[in-house]
Design a protein that fits this description.
Helix content: 40-55%
Strand content: 5-15%
Distance between the termini: 37 Å
Oligomer: single chain
Number of strands: 3
Number of helices: 3
Strand order of the largest sheet: 1-3-2
Order of helices and strands: HEHEEH
Largest sheet: 3 strands, antiparallel
Structural class: alpha+beta
């Protein structure tokens, strides 16, 4: 379990660092999921799906009266460090979709 935690944290850190290189500052998540703010949730979902990146809509995880900005949930567990920059570039594009 400790090794899995270390691996997942390293993967998350690699993607967050790559996102920073693309101009997006987000915190390293403490779990497997990154909550990525986007301009338009639906447009981001469509953009990423077209690029072959599966993410989840963030709105089902927000209370109805919460005024939180749109976001998508990105599970980073399967992103290998050598893929971090490519994935981050696609995520960065999706934030502007």
């Amino acid at each position: 379990v400790a090794e899995a935690r270390r691996q997942y944290f390293g993967r998350s850190r690699a993607v967050v660092a790559a996102l920073a290189r693309h101009g997006l500052d987000v915190e390293v998540p403490d779990g497997l999921n990154l909550w990525l703010p986007v301009r338009d949730e639906r447009a981001a979902l469509l953009h990423l799906e077209a690029a072959g990146v599966r993410v989840a809509a963030g709105s089902p995880f927000v209370a109805p009266d919460d005024q939180q900005a749109p976001h998508v949930r990105v599970t980073l567990a399967l992103v290998r460090p050598e893929e971090a920059d490519e994935v981050a570039a696609l995520l960065a594009e999706a934030t502007r979709a």
